[in-house]
Write a structure and sequence with these properties.
alpha/beta, 7-stranded mixed beta sheet, 21 helices
Length: about 500
């Protein structure tokens, strides 16, 4: 029997409701969809706050959606409401979220840019998996331009090279034009300068000229695909680059009314269409691709996929991209990759041995792996107190698939992999919820021991068995010669492990 699930997205230019029917096998079909325009982005990107009139407009729409959802007999447990860049940047965000909760009963989750990227990735991956699996493992860009932000992901040979959420969207560009009383020519110059600088930065993470596949998500590109694209899958179209360029130039000459008439779209979409298409075109021109792939999917589908059971392949691929993203950050800061991967391997071995008494979920294992890979990234700045620099770099990096609070945990675990434990009293640690503080302590305790086992950065301990015996964690290895450095390191860094788990750590 199919069960319904509702997802609401509060975006910069509209509020959208998607109702899906889920099968016990984990597949789903869209059963209902509604969309209403709002001026959230115009308010926030102009004045910094959501106005009273816009709040009332949002409440009317959401209450209407509440009635629509009630018709499907969906309870609150199966309703998810997310808000993206506009509400995320609003100075009165907390007040708005509270009023919506009180007046509609909806609990809003304000997602950050990295979460948006995660949902977009899952949605695109599912479409490719179903329609065009042959094109997944190439040098690829995935790009979505919204009202308030641009989400971009770079892949090399199918592995995540970089992920960014840029403060650039159709509403922001529109506001810029008005603020300087500019023309569309001024808008183009602004965009060209912005995207050129973005391209320079992106080229440090992946060679854009080697990009072979450009995948786009977004309503503007879907309009272009319907007009000039060629269907290559059930939900995928391909557009020739030269034809797309000519189409964009043509649309630049249209007024909003002309866009409405030509493409049969609403005023909000029509107003954003020329500048949205131009932005896509300028990003595409950074690469050498000949074709553009347009995926008919969205952030709501990605959110739904993240919640579905029976999506083990998607989740495994997603985790592998988190690790690939961490490795690419490490390479950027010239980590000792062999040491990082070895420490990661030992840390996960310890985690799996201790799993029954850790009391942590599967996500914690991923966070430990990321922290293990990046624990020495601060060496790029200075070897002395490098753990402090590691914390800073991680905190200010975009790690694909991890929210800001999860990155905070990774940064603290990396910080505490080395140095005296008195720093556990710092504010950043104490401000965490109790469950997160406990996770940091457990993961840092494991990482300290794993790092100690490669004190020489030589990876010469190749066969390790871990035994839990009474009050001791015994690390057994057939190699007993030349182990003095590791034994000393374990005695120095095993203090947190003993304090947290009650086990004395020793090498035998």
């Amino acid at each position: 029997m199919k069960s319904p699930e509702a997802v609401i997205e509060i975006g910069s230019t509209g509020i959208r409701l998607m109702i899906c029917e889920l099968s016990p096998q984990g597949s789903w079909e869209t059963a209902d969809f509604s969309e209403q325009p709002v001026s959230l982005g115009r308010d926030v990107f102009t004045n910094g706050t959501v106005s009273r009139d816009t709040l009332l407009q949002c409440l009317r729409i959401l209450n209407r959606f509440r009635e629509q959802i009630a018709g499907w007999k969906i309870d609150n447990e199966h309703i998810t409401v997310i808000a993206t860049s506009a509400l995320r940047e609003a100075r009165n965000r907390d007040t708005i979220v509270d009023r919506i909760q009180v007046k509609t009963g909806f609990n809003i989750r304000v997602v950050n840019g990295i979460e948006e990227n995660r949902f977009i990735y899952l949605a695109v991956l599912e479409v490719l998996r179903r329609d065009a699996p042959r094109i997944q493992r190439q040098n690829t860009v995935i790009l979505e331009i919204g009202g308030g932000s641009t989400e971009i992901m770079l892949f090399e040979q199918g592995k995540m090279a970089a992920v960014h959420s840029l403060r650039l969207g159709t509403v922001i560009i529109e506001h810029y034009i008005k603020s300087v009383t500019g023309t569309r020519h001024d808008a183009r110059r602004f965009l060209e300068d912005f995207i050129k600088n973005a391209g320079v930065n992106l080229n440090t993470e992946a060679n854009l000229q080697k990009i072979r596949q450009f995948i786009t998500v977004g309503s503007e590109m879907q309009i272009a695909a319907r007009e000039i694209g060629k269907k290559i899958g059930k939900r995928i179209r391909s557009i020739d680059r030269e034809r797309f360029s000519a189409f964009v130039d043509e649309v630049q000459q249209y007024s909003a009314d002309e866009c409405m008439a030509r493409f049969k779209i609403g005023y909000t979409e029509a107003k954003a269409l020329p500048v949205g298409l131009l932005t896509y075109k300028l990003f595409i021109e950074l690469t050498g691709v000949k074709k553009i792939i347009v995926s008919d999917t969205n952030i709501r589908e990605g959110l739904l996929l993240s919640k579905l059971p029976g999506q083990s392949n998607l989740q495994e691929d997603f985790i592998s991209q988190i690790i690939a993203s961490a490795l690419n950050i490490g390479k950027k800061y010239r980590i000792d990759e062999n040491h990082a991967l070895y420490v990661s391997k030992i840390a996960l071995l310890l985690y799996d041995k201790m799993e029954a008494e850790l009391g942590l979920d599967k996500e914690a294992r991923v966070l430990l792996e990321v922290a293990s890979i990046l624990h020495d990234v601060g060496m790029f700045i200075r070897a002395s107190d490098h753990q402090l620099h590691s914390q800073y770099i991680i905190l200010h990096s975009d790690i694909f698939g991890l929210t800001k609070d999860r990155i905070q945990i990774v940064a603290l675990v990396a910080r505490y992999h080395n140095g005296p434990l008195r720093r556990l009293s710092e504010e950043a640690f104490l401000m965490l919820p109790r469950s997160d503080r406990t996770m940091v302590l457990k993961l840092a305790a494991i990482l300290r021991v794993a790092d100690a086992l490669d004190r020489s950065h030589s990876q010469h301990i190749t066969d390790i068995r871990i035994i839990l015996k009474e009050d001791s964690l015994i690390i057994k290895t057939p190699r007993t010669d030349n182990m003095n450095l590791e034994k000393t390191a374990v005695s120095e860094k095993g203090d947190l492990f003993e304090s947290v788990f009650g086990y004395n750590v020793r090498i035998a």
